[in-house]
Amino acid sequence: MTHAVPATIASSDSDAPFEPHSAWGAAPSDRYEELASRFRPLFARIRASAVERDRLHQLPHEEIRWLREAGFIRLRLSRDQGGVDATLPELIALLIELGAADTNVVNAVRAHLGFVEDVLTAPEKDWRARWLGLLAEGALIGAALSEAGSARVGTFATHLARTPNGLRLNGKKFYTTGSLFADWIAVAAQDGEETVYLQVPRHAQGVEVVDDWDGFGQALTASGTAIFTDVAVEPEWVRPTSSRFPYAVPFYQLVHLASLAGIGRALADDVAQRVHHRDRVYSHGNAARVADDPQILQVVGRLHAAAYAANAVVLQASKALQRSYEAHQDPIASEARREHANTEAHVEVDQSVSVVTRLVLDASTDLFDALGASATLRTEGLDRYWRNARTISSHNPRVYRERQVGAFAVNGTLPPSFYRVGKA
Question: Residues annotated as region Disordered (predicted)?
């Protein structure tokens, strides 16, 4: 005969303050803690409203305004341009912490951060100087690159036309992440047979941005539709060349991996706190307090191990991006050195994708093993970890990353330098 255990057991320990541990590994630089301390109170404010905003579909306009006012979007700029000369590992580490607060916000500034890299590495001096000035003033850039239409792979249906009245932009974009919050939108378009990149003011006549993203995750990124109808384009808004920064592909993917690592850290801390305070136990459990149940502690430990590993892998890959950046900024670096550094950045990030994705997706499911059925209530918001991780992981599918790594390892096949989606 079994003996019933009361559903609720009072414990003064369960009411004790909970402090998440900080054993996430060494910081990416000696100054990182000082740098991060500026933003951690802001990250805490963003995290405090994340569940409610997700449940009510409240876009993070205010949260992004906080980041702008704090100078977060200028981190990579020099000090005389309002930045702090942040390295790429420092930036990625901060994005992991911001991702632990809300990955919607990370994704909303992803296009801006990539545009900053474009400007920092641009060989066109006048174009670079113009945009460094605007970025230093706090301009925020959104994206309108991808399309959901019938254009063939490698081309765009959106086109830039040369008319008697000047340049005109027409087209429709999807996955326009961050554009609803931005001052300028970075657009890819066809100019005849050539692909061109240009920046258009968010509120220019003929520009419409619609929040119609209907994904089950990352719902607050405004990754919906942007429509350009006969938009008048000034010549200086068009970049002189169609080249992007050399490590663009691994950079954009690493921002996604930073979001995943942030999810891992957030859910690990979240579950640990819930287990610490939980006072309902199962009659067939192993202790009178959930916090003392060795099987539950094992689950919590597994979640923290996954988060630790994801964090370490992402930061390691960020060093490869930094090496690529430095090689391309070094005026005496050989072309062979630059190509080697860039290839390593691609491969290291590709190798990271499957590992980090699997760790975080598994953790976002396993977390429920440490809690009760009440953890599935929508008001708890725990499902957002899996929904967001699954949505982020669906960008640039990991199966192709694994194949690319295998092709490089076996045959020396270089990873692709750009990704496009469209009709075959």
Answer: 1-22
Contact partners, residue 146, CB within 8 Å, separation at least 6: 173, 174, 175, 421
Does 417 fall in a domain?
no
263 and 376 share one domain: yes
Q: What gap in Å lies between CA 93 and CA 95, rounded to an integer?
A: 5
The residue from 237, 266, 289 where one domain ends is 237
Neighbouring CB atoms inside 10 A of 56's CB total 9
In this predicted structure, what is the pLDDT of residue 11? 39
Q: Tell me whether residue 424 is in a domain.
A: no
Which of 139, 167, 192 delimits the end of a domain?
A: 139
* Residue-number span of the structural domain to which 367 is assigned: 248-411
Any idea what DSSP says for residue 181? Answer: G
Q: Are residues 374 and 312 in the same domain?
A: yes
Are 130 and 148 in the same domain? no
Q: Which residues pair with 144 in a beta bridge?
A: 187
Q: What is the pLDDT of residues 350-359, one digit of tens each?
A: 999 999 999 9
Helices (H), 71-175: 88-101, 103-121, 125-136
d(CA 29, CA 400): 33
Q: Tell whether pTM > 0.85.
A: yes
With a cut of 80, say whether residue 153 has pLDDT above it.
no
What value does the mean pLDDT take over residues 401-410?
95
Residue at 139: amino acid letter: A
CA distance 393 to 260: 8
Let me know how long the chain is: 424
What DSSP element (H or E) covers 170? Answer: strand 166-173
